[in-house]
Amino acid sequence: MTEIKKQFPEGFLWGGATAANQVEGGFDLDGKGLSTADMVKFVPKDERGNGHALDVTSEEIEEILAGKSKARFPKRDGVDFYHHYKEDIALFAEMGFKTFRLSFNWARIFPNGDDLTPNEAGLKFYDNVIDELVKYGIEPLVTLSHYETPLGLTQKYNGWASREVINHYVRYAETAMKRYKDKVKYWLTFNEINIIAISPYTGGGVVVDRVENPLEVSYQAAHHQFVASSKVVKLGHEINPDFEIGCMLARMETYPATNNPEDILLAQHQNQMNLFFTDVQVGGYYPGFIKRYFAENNITIKMEDGDLELLQEYPVDYLSFSYYMTLSVSADPNRDQTGGNFMGGVKNEYLESSDWGWQIDPIGLRVTLNTLYDRYQVPLFIVENGLGAYDTVEADGAIHDPYRIDYLRKHIEQMKEAIADGVDLIGYTSWGPIDLISASTSEMSKRYGFIYVDQDDEGNGTLARSRKDSFFWYKKVIDTNGEDLA
């Protein structure tokens, strides 16, 4: 009988993940243009309830650009990685990172998005960051678009609602891939591409008050991103055949709340709608269920000749995804609802919740890994997973975060189980290795990091970095290739 080994493969890519708009700062330095993320204001929790504060209206943008807004925009400042990158990367190296997932801010390289030539000062910053990673033997994993569309493209074209944006994105991707063709192997075309159907502004720079049918436009914008992604896969492999170019999904594994067939059917539908995006990017086709959905919801996707052939011929090399929770759904409208990352659902009585109401489900990660691998049979990469929580700095400066260690341990244990199931899992980058501005709420107090950053929700603090208990724990995990999780 064959022995089943529950261990991570040699060369497994352990690391952490960030986004430029949540860590960099320097929003107006060295020729950088404004991005959509620079327009997202901080809204105190007591003013926004339990929801996120992501969508921005045309009126708000005009008010901000006219200098009439008194709001604060935390993503403009991040945690000043722009000036602290050497210190931060040294800390990542101390933990033993094999890889670091970062994003390039498109507007730092092409300030208006449709510029014909890049901003050399912006590229120089990424030269320095990439060289610093290479110095420590850390493999860069670059996301080309992570919730930051150049504002110029939103103003001129309404972002990805327009097909015009495809060529501008491909020019940007070509610039980055040619410049780093010998230093960056792993690329992601879009972060959590499915979020464009939930928040078109966040995922694609689309201001929904400018369109008549926001649902239709969100899927039209997604189609433009699919085409752009395939064009970049084709181009990237021409630049360097060794490139590994992936897609990225916000995976929302959905359970039926009961064994009522109506609940089961609803959960199946929710999973299909989530996986539609990877059906296109990995499978290379538009599945039947989405065609029915479009027909029943008055959605017509405008395609050009050759689009479907392009999608089929140039799928991604691997599938990456974020995983924070599972969702449960019920056909019964009277069941209690719970919060979640952009999405809600009914409360799952078998799961605990985080400080922000996100339901914690380590076993669900194993379910997700098996679901994705069964469906696609391509290498998988977990590029976001972590616990947002309140942290306390003790009098001696220590930060004890056993809740974070417990969360990560239980998820890593399930990753080992999935590998034993036969899943081809190539890496894991926790979100985020250093405290950063929350994507969904623009808070600082919602902390994920192994590294504490002295900054509060109002932007006050020294920005000093310090190691939490989880820093030393994760270092041990990497040192033992996931064997010592105690």
UniProtKB/TrEMBL annotation:
GO terms for biological process: carbohydrate catabolic process. The keyword Hydrolase applies. The active site is at residue 384. GO terms for molecular function: beta-glucosidase activity. Belongs to the glycosyl hydrolase 1 family. NCBIfam families: PRK09593.1, PRK09852.1. This is 6-phospho-beta-glucosidase.
